[in-house]
């Protein structure tokens, strides 16, 4: 067990300066101002603020770690690997199952933390916490399934056998938009397969990361098996460059991901990337428009558009364009935007003022290039992180219809034919997700085979996936990286060894 030698301090999270209301947790011990490695709960010489994007209020301060702390974490993971890899799958699965139980028990508290520092509505936050917990239960079950295969040999009496062995030390670098789910996708199969982990989460959501580490400690994970470091992006660079880190799994921007790929592959490490998308939603004339409109707006505006699978382009085929736009406008204007702590809010703030500026700049550029905003949500409150859900009509010549905008913004494009629709959908450097709305089985079959995307939805939004099915993209969305989720997740975190076994002669 990890020895927690620092006293747990109750951190009060105020909604705004001067208010008396405090976000109270059922388990105040989830709130810590420390990082976690084999040396226990530790602080740092410097710290940084965590702010509530809905109010701009500072809610806590956490350690800003550096090179020394990162070195300690990597060394701890390397030292812990042989013993953790030697444990039986049943032993590792038992700890992961215990973490599932603790996550489920603390789902309400984790949701409060997520909404406080990331901004998404409370119900959405709780849903993410529960699905993340299920990911650990699923991967715990897979840990106890056979990873061996037997092949016939051309040599009499010989058997060919393959086994999977853990990769080693894995660097896990995760974003802020899904601060529990994406870490779960990576950490669960990594640990289940016998690897140790150095985890660098985004700086926007550190409180949640610390809470997860606390639950791992409570689940009984051995010293050094999971190490959490908090701080700037340069710490991720130190993890990526270290020869002791056998593999790096990263979700984030294209530029950063490509840089990680270059560094890791140059030292013969293994890399897994999920980088972004510019996802199309094709709506044909025979579509159920009620279903299509609901899914298109949900896909574009849900989570404030801060999803790599968000719908960026809505492609209207044939004569439905005008009616479709009218329906989309009504739906966008009816969205309830506000503080995610309010029960009736469906769309929260962007994660930071910097994110708000990036979206605002992209929208201004689109308007300068000739895009027409047909819907701008008028119910959006003022504040440095609130951005009104916005719907454009435009053309493929716009920057916004070619480059990812990480916010509640989407554009309707018009085409006349099926061929044009598929060509437009594929006309992007990304290939993460796509959706089509039609009842025509020929169009459905064509979509499955011709859309250049790793995730294809038929009569559903571009967003969303299930933990038992593979997830990943094509082109610049993921490259040739191994898929996440499902039983394919183990492929990245293990090495395959092939043994030719022939009994010796009896004496």
Topology:
Blueprint: E1 35-37, E2 40-42, E3 46-51, E4 58-64, H1 67-86, H2 89-105, H3 107-118, H4 122-143, E5 149-152, E6 159-166, E7 169-173, H5 181-192, E8 196-200, H6 206-219, E9 226-228, H7 233-241, E10 247-251, H8 254-266, E11 270-274, E12 279-283, H9 289-301, E13 311-317, H10 321-334, H11 353-368, E14 372-376, E15 390-393, E16 409-415, H12 418-426, E17 430-431, E18 433-437, H13 441-450, E19 455-458, E20 474-475, H14 489-493, E21 494-501
Parallel strand pairs: 7-8, 7-10, 8-9, 10-11, 12-13, 12-18, 13-16, 15-16, 18-19
Antiparallel strand pairs: 1-2, 3-4, 5-6, 6-21, 14-15, 17-20
Structure description:
With 507 residues, the chain is an alpha/beta fold. The chain folds into two domains: 28-275 and 481-494, Aldehyde Dehydrogenase, Chain A, domain 1 (3-Layer(aba) Sandwich); 279-458, Aldehyde Dehydrogenase, Chain A, domain 2 (3-Layer(aba) Sandwich), CATH 3.40.309. Helix content is 37%, strand content 20%. The chain is built from 14 helices and 21 strands. The chain has helices at residues 67-86, 89-105, 107-118, 122-143, 181-192, 206-219, 233-241, 254-266, 289-301, 321-334, 353-368, 418-426, 441-450, 489-493, and strands at residues 35-37, 40-42, 46-51, 58-64, 149-152, 159-166, 169-173, 196-200, 226-228, 247-251, 270-274, 279-283, 311-317, 372-376, 390-393, 409-415, 430-431, 433-437, 455-458, 474-475, 494-501. The strands form six sheets. Strands 14-15-16-13-12-18-19 form a seven-stranded mixed sheet, sandwiched between helices. It has a five-stranded parallel sheet with strand order 9-8-7-10-11, with helices on both faces. A three-stranded antiparallel sheet has the order 5-6-21. Helix 6 (206-219) links the parallel strand 8 and strand 9 (226-228). It is globular. Residues 1-22 have low confidence and may be disordered.
């Amino acid at each position: 067990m990890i020895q927690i030698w620092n006293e747990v301090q109750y951190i009060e999270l105020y909604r705004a300066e001067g208010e008396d209301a405090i976000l109270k947790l059922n388990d105040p011990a989830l709130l810590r101002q420390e990082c976690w490695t084999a040396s226990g709960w530790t602080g740092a010489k410097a710290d940084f603020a965590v702010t509530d994007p809905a109010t701009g209020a500072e809610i806590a301060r956490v350690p800003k770690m550096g090179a020394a702390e990162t070195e300690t974490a990597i060394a701890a993971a390397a030292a812990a690997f042989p013993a953790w890899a030697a444990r039986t799958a049943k032993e590792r699965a038992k700890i992961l199952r215990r973490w599932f139980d603790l996550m489920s028990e603390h789902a309400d508290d984790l949701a409060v933390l997520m909404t406080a520092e990331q901004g998404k509505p409370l119900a959405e936050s709780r849903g993410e916490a529960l699905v993340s917990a299920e990911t650990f239960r699923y991967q715990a079950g897979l840990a106890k399934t056979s990873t061996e295969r037997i092949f016939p040999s051309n040599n009499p009496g010989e058997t060919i056998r393959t086994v999977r062995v853990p990769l080693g030390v894995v660097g896990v670098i995760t974003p802020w938009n899904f601060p529990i789910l994406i870490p779960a996708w990576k950490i669960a199969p990594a640990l289940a397969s016998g690897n140790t982990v150095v985890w660098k989460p985004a700086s926007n959501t550190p409180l949640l990361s610390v809470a997860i580490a606390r639950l791992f400690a409570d689940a009984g994970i051995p010293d050094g098996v999971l190490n959490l470091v908090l701080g700037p992006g340069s710490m991720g660079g130190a993890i990526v460059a270290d020869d002791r880190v056998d593999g790096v799994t990263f979700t984030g921007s294209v530029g950063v991901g490509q840089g990680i790929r270059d560094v890791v592959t140059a030292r013969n490490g293994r890399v897994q990337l999920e980088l972004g998308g510019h996802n199309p939603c094709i709506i044909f004339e025979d579509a159920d428009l009620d279903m299509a409109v609901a899914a298109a707006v949900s896909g574009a505006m849900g989570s404030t558009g801060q999803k790599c699978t968000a719908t960026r382009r809505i492609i209207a085929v044939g004569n439905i364009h005008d009616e479709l736009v009218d329906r989309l406008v009504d739906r966008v204007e009816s969205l309830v935007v506000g503080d995610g702590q309010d029960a009736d809010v469906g769309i929260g703030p962007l994660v930071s003022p910097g994110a708000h500026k990036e979206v605002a700049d992209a929208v201004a550029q689109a308007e300068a290039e000739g895009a027409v905003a047909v819907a701008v949500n008028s119910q959006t409150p003022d504040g440095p992180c609130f951005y009104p859900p916005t719907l454009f009509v435009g053309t493929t010549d716009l920057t916004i219809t070619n480059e990812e905008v990480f916010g509640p913004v989407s554009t309707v494009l018009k085409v006349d034919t099926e061929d044009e629709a598929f060509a437009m959908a594929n006309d992007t450097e990304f290939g993460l997700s796509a959706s089509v709305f039609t009842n025509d089985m020929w169009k459905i079959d064509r979509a499955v085979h011709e859309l250049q995307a790793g995730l294809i939805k038929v009569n559903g939004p571009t967003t969303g996936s299930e933990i038992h099915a593979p997830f990943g993209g094509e082109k610049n969305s993921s490259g040739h990286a191994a898929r996440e989720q499902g039983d394919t997740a183990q492929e990245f975190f293990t090495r395959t060894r092939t043994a030719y076994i022939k009994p010796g002669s009896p004496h």
